[in-house]
């Protein structure tokens, strides 16, 4: 009987100890946050630190790559800006040259060529006494021989109507108006006025000059195709005009502006060869030298 009682006591004590030990173990993570199994708060901090370090390294690398890419883009854009700036400076210089050249030519031609006048009819010759010679009255009264009658000829066609009489003063005023408009820098209006002049006076005294200034106005407006056609018409229709050397020069300039440097060189050399003592030849030599400096 005594043995059973002791055994039961020992059993109860063991059970109580097991319950108390389990409770102690269950409460340990809260009482002792740093355990020996590696699952404590210190290991979590280390893992967070390692994750932050890894993320930080990846972010820095990504940012470095992006910065390098942006730097390359900036360099490319800077090169583009410099190239565009160079092209803009070149265009401005060429435009100034166009205006300057036209201005010099306008000043040189500020006084248009004088109008042609009809020479007076020569008077009948007189002898030493001041009286006109007398013709033989007999010779004047001899009738012509009578031709044999023939069949009536067909009536000749009526003569063409007489050309309208052009008032030189009106023609000169029209030319001067267009010329003054060009001097004022109103190139579009000058084109209109010179086109009207050559249409109304296709063979007037100043028609060759009108074609030249019309082409110059096109040139300054950078309408190179119209300028080329007009300079060529001047050369073709007025080969003896004093404007022909300058027209050849400007054809070379037009090819230069269009980037056709081979054609420009050929035309400019032709001006130098064909008109060696002209101002056009001197300007052609200057442009050829400039092309050599520009490696064209």
UniProtKB/TrEMBL annotation:
Residue segments, region Disordered: 123-162
GO terms (BP aspect): FtsZ-dependent cytokinesis; protein trimerization
Positions with biased composition (Low complexity): 123-141
Domain of life the protein comes from: Bacteria
Pfam families per UniProt: TolA_bind_tri, YfiO
Subcellular location(s) per record: Periplasm
Record's signal peptide: 1-23
Segments forming domain YbgF trimerisation: 44-113
Entry keyword set: Cell cycle, Cell division, Coiled coil, Periplasm, Signal, TPR repeat
PROSITE patterns referenced in this protein's UniProt entry, alphabetically: TPR (PS50005)
GO cellular component: outer membrane-bounded periplasmic space
Keyword Transferase carried by entry: no
Family label: Belongs to the CpoB family.
NCBIfam families referenced in this protein's UniProt entry, alphabetically: tol_pal_ybgF
Protein known as: Cell division coordinator CpoB
Protein's organism: Methylomagnum ishizawai
């Amino acid at each position: 009987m005594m043995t059973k009682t002791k055994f039961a006591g020992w059993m109860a004590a063991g059970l109580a100890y097991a319950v108390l030990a389990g409770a102690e173990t269950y409460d340990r993570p809260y009482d002792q946050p740093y355990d020996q199994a590696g699952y404590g708060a210190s290991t979590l901090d280390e893992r967070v630190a390692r994750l932050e370090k890894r993320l930080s390294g990846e972010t820095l690398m990504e940012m470095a790559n992006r910065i390098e890419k942006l730097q390359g883009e900036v360099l490319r854009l800077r090169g583009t800006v410099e190239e565009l700036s160079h092209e803009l400076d070149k265009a401005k210089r060429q435009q100034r040259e166009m205006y300057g050249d036209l201005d010099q030519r306008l000043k040189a031609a500020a006084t248009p060529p004088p109008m042609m006048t009809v020479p007076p009819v020569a008077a009948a010759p007189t002898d030493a006494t001041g009286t006109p010679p007398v013709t033989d009255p007999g010779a004047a009264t001899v009738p012509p021989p009578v031709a044999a009658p023939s069949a009536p000829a067909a009536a000749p066609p009526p003569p063409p109507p007489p050309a309208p009489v052009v008032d030189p003063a009106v023609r000169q005023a029209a030319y001067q108006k267009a010329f003054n408009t060009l001097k004022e820098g109103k190139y579009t209006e000058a084109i209109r006025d010179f086109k009207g002049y050559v249409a109304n006076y296709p063979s007037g005294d100043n028609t060759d000059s009108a074609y030249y200034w019309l082409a110059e106005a096109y040139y300054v407006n950078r309408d190179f195709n119209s300028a080329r056609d007009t300079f060529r018409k001047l050369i073709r229709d007025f080969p003896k005009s004093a404007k022909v050397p300058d027209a050849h020069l400007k054809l070379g300039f037009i090819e230069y502006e269009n980037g056709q440097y081979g054609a420009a060189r050929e035309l400019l050399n032709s001006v130098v060869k064909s008109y060696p003592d002209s101002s056009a030849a001197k300007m052609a030599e200057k442009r050829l030298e400039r092309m050599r400096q520009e490696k064209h």
